[in-house]
Amino acid sequence: MRVELKGLQKRFGKVLALRGVTIDLPEGSRTALIGPNGSGKSTLVRVLMGMLCADGMVLFDGVEASEERRELARRIAYVPQIAPRLAAPVGDVVRAVAGLRGQAWTEVAAIAAALSLDLDALARRPFRALSGGQRQKILAALALSSGAELLLLDEPTASMDPRSRGEFFRLVESLPSSVTVLLCSHRLDEIRRLVDRVIVLAEGELRWQGSAAAYLDDHAEAVVEVQVVGEPADTWLLARGFTRGATGWWSKALPVNERARLLGEIGRNLNGQVRDVMARDVERLQPDSQGERE
Ligand code: ADP
Ligand code: MG
Fold first, then answer.
1. Domain 220-283 in this protein, CATH class
2. What is the pTM of this model?
3. Within 13 Å, how many C-alpha atoms sit on residue 32's CB side?
4. Which of 9, 35, 62, 288 has its Cβ near the most Cβ atoms within 10 Å?
5. Which ligand 1 atom sits closest to the C-alpha of 40?
């Protein structure tokens, strides 16, 4: 599904939450929407969902949203930032949402199981009695098994455990390539794994848009950490600018695009002396980061 926002403006009393935002999400695009707290990300997503009205235009596949809401509801899936605390039992919530799209309970339960959640065991519990992470997994399972053409994911893994987060990534990656994904997130791992484009909002305005690779080049730094055995390895690492931490891990920060070469060198030069090695993204501190990022 293609999504076009034209001059989107939303006011809450004195707060102008969106100030003329124009965005085009081509069919099958995977976009991260990032920006500090209060920059308007959730508002934008909720306008797309039809949960809030706003000035400006929202087009889905070229058709104005306001004309087709009922039909659109089936084609769009949403995982909210904070899952609602519904009093109804989990089973009723799942059946009500799944019923809208003709999803089978077993399909939803299979995805939930992949996220380490036993839907059948929880079916009689009040939805609001579950933990934030459990509620988020249920909503994620409903969205991922929905067959929707547009997925709106508002910080979907914020309260998931690391293992479920990894599984969630795998599930999003295995969606058909025609599915359009808009993901509110400032997690670098999600940006690297799940999206190809980044849009930055600040104070309700579009501040930057471009490729995820360009965004990460500017905002991420690679850290390579290695544990070795033997003095020759220590000497080799020291000579390459690694520093040793209290727990014995050597670490070095470097530009992301130099990480692969360094890992290759470690493999060739410290053959047999490496006990463990790790490479990850960290946020690069920038002079202008205060105003730009969370
Ligand atoms: P983000 O998701 O980027 O953190 P939000 O879209 O939640 O930002 O909020 C954008 C701005 O709009 C904030 O100033 C927030 O306080 C305000 N806002 C959001 N929802 C409401 C609401 N229902 N009523 C009043 N103000 C709101
Ligand atoms: Mg938000």
1. alpha beta
2. 0.86
3. 27
4. 35
5. 6
